[in-house]
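Re: that chain you flagged

S.,

Sorry for the slow reply, it's been a week of failed gels. I finally had a moment to sit down with the sequence you sent. For the record, here it is as I used it:
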Amino acid sequence: MAEFSAPGLATARASTPPRVREASDARRQLPGATRGGVRLLLRLEGLAVLAAAVAAYQYLGASWGAFAMLFLLPDLSFLGYLAGARIGAVAYNAAHSYIGPVALLALGLVGETPTLIAVALVWSAHIGLDRALGYGLKYGSEFGATHLGRIGRADPW
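Prediction finished late last night. Pasting the structure tokens below so you have them in one place:
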């Protein structure tokens, strides 16, 4: 089916044979990844976590310089990919799951330790931003395979 942007003018997509488009679309979809409204809901949830964590951090009165220095710390887990996709996914998921920051937040609250609370909030904010941008937990098959769908550019072949 040709798509038309103006009377009598087919768009560039119409020049791509349908079977090539179907194959390309099939490679973009990832078994087990969320799609549609569920994916949007998870991304909005990440945005809500980011906003709540930043607001709580502001209320806590901790240093914004420390926030900036700690914010990208979970991304050091990318180094796990040097040992392969499976180990990289485990390392990434350990640093990008809410289990760690929630446990740290609980320890900080029970122990009345503002530093632990601040670190947990920064960590939560980082994960929230990643989710809002569509970066989900990784599958061990490859770097771009996440629970929120494939990330990165589509392979043209």
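What I noticed first: Strands lie at 4-6, 9-10, 145-146, 149-150.

Talk soon,
D.
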